[in-house]
């Protein structure tokens, strides 16, 4: 079946995920349920995004009809085997960006598709290289863009991503919060 004709329930409050699905031409409605974004501490960092995406999808399971598919996702930034989620405050945000400055990091978005009788989880990986950033640039970015709702304290679609990222291995949409190419491909066989 054509993925663009499936009835999708997007279980996400992220405006970026809605924007990407909409621009790619999918049909969807947003329905969300609060989920505690916790995971077992011993879990390998590469598995966390998929685990959290599944948790978010399962929390929305009761909402759906027979012909509907829940889509949930979670994005994490990983550097030196440590997960960077959303920053707590200004200092935390600056500290995260300072760690990313001049370095390569990994962004993983886990996605879960869930219907009444099926479930599928998959993840997309992108490796991202930041140019070195000065303290003044970091302060400008955090003050002006307030990246408190962004994993890793930055958004690829804003000034910092557009002007300070020099290399990406993987897709832009994955870094922005939803690997739409992969979603399309997986929906063809779901
Ligand atoms: C790395 C990066 C993340 N982000 C955003 C995407 C996600 O909204 C957010 C990661 O947080 P998530 O916990 O993945 O998602 P969320 O809490 O925003 O939404 P929900 O749980 O309801 O689905 O960071 C960008 O917009 N640009 C980027 O470059």
UniProtKB/TrEMBL annotation:
EC numbers: 3.6.1.9
Needed cofactors: a divalent metal cation
GO biological process per UniProt: nucleotide metabolic process
Native species: Haliscomenobacter hydrossis (strain ATCC 27775 / DSM 1100 / LMG 10767 / O)
Annotated site location: Important for substrate specificity: 16, 75, 157
Protein name: dTTP/UTP pyrophosphatase
Domain of life of the source: Bacteria
Catalytic activity: UTP + H2O = UMP + diphosphate + H(+); dTTP + H2O = dTMP + diphosphate + H(+)
Keyword Zinc included in the entry's annotation: no
Classification of source organism: Bacteria, Pseudomonadati, Bacteroidota, Saprospiria, Saprospirales
Enzyme class: hydrolase
